[in-house]
Design brief:
The chain is α/β, with parallel strands linked by helices and 283 residues long. It contains eight helices and twelve strands. The chain is 36% helix and 19% strand. The structure holds manganese (II) ion.
């Protein structure tokens, strides 16, 4: 499919959690005139603790560079995990432009503020140490989740349940970890007379009008595997990469296993709606 623009954020290349294969599938399915990388693409924070760099992650970088070379507009807006890039506001590296923020004009004339968004997160802004601790804990959860997925496959449970997604939704409610992130972004775009914001950072995809402005979040590629695309008429759409492949992969697997009704041991657990990966990836 060809779209006018693709917006992705929070890929976290260099970490074990990065779902590079998923992203490659998505990039294969979607060609575009513009590709906006909205922060935390390469995770330098986590790479300080140890690098996990796979061939698929390499291919992601190569595909992006290739798109830029072939005349697509590629813009990188650094996030907090790749904040070293923030020194290069306005610089172009080869064919990739680096900007702290950017105002994108859609095909139907709407003006969207593009930025990663961590500057609107009270936790990372004022309590960096807390954010780093949260980050280590999150890595641990994602790793635990891989074991849980293996167990689910062993028990022939179709689909995917995200422990990290579940924990995040609980933590968010309990500690208000990102309590007024969305509100402050909405307030900021309204103040600037823009039509909306497209951001990332909190790993929670969204596309919803809030009064006279539109709040859009790209989500992430470590857990939910989501992206935003702009169609040629200017319409924005939230793409959940796991939806496209979930049905065809899950059905034959269950049939081959010969189990019509697998034991529903995890059915009492809530679905986050942001889970990624009915596709069976080698672990
Ligand atoms: Mn971030």
């Amino acid at each position: 499919m060809h779209v006018r623009s693709i917006f992705i954020s929070d890929v976290h290349l260099g970490t074990r959690a990065c779902q590079a294969d998923r992203l490659l599938d998505f990039l294969r399915d979607y060609e575009s005139d513009n590709l906006f990388l909205i922060g935390d693409i390469i995770d330098f924070w986590s790479m300080n603790r140890g690098i996990h760099w796979t061939p698929a992650q390499n291919t992601v970088v190569q595909k992006i560079l290739r798109r830029a070379r072939h005349g697509q507009r590629v813009m990188l807006i650094p996030g907090n995990h790749d904040e070293a890039m923030r020194e290069y506001d306005g610089v172009s590296f080869g064919d990739i432009e680096v900007r702290l923020e950017h105002i994108h004009l859609t095909a139907d004339g709407k003006r969207y503020l593009l930025l990663h968004g961590d500057e609107f997160d009270q936790v990372t802004r004022y309590h960096r140490w807390l954010a780093v601790i949260g980050d280590v804990g999150y890595d641990l959860l994602v790793r635990l989740n891989a074991s849980l997925s293996r167990l689910r496959r062993l028990l022939r449970r179709p689909g995917y349940w995200s422990l990290a997604g579940y924990a995040k939704s609980r933590v968010k409610r309990a500690v208000s970890f990102v309590f007024d992130f969305e509100d402050s972004l909405i307030h900021a775009v309204r103040e600037r007379g823009l039509d909306g914001v497209i951001c990332g950072h909190i790993h929670s995809a969204a596309l919803r009008p809030v009064g006279d402005v539109v709040y859009v979040n790209c989500g992430d590629w470590v857990d939910s595997c989501t992206a935003i695309v702009e169609h040629h008429d200017g319409r924005l759409e939230l793409i959940r990469a796991w939806q496209a492949v979930a049905a065809p992969v899950a059905a034959p697997a269950a049939a081959a296993a010969g189990t019509a009704s697998p034991t529903p041991i995890f059915d009492d657990l809530p679905q986050t709606g942001l889970a990624c990966g009915a596709k069976i990836a080698p672990l």
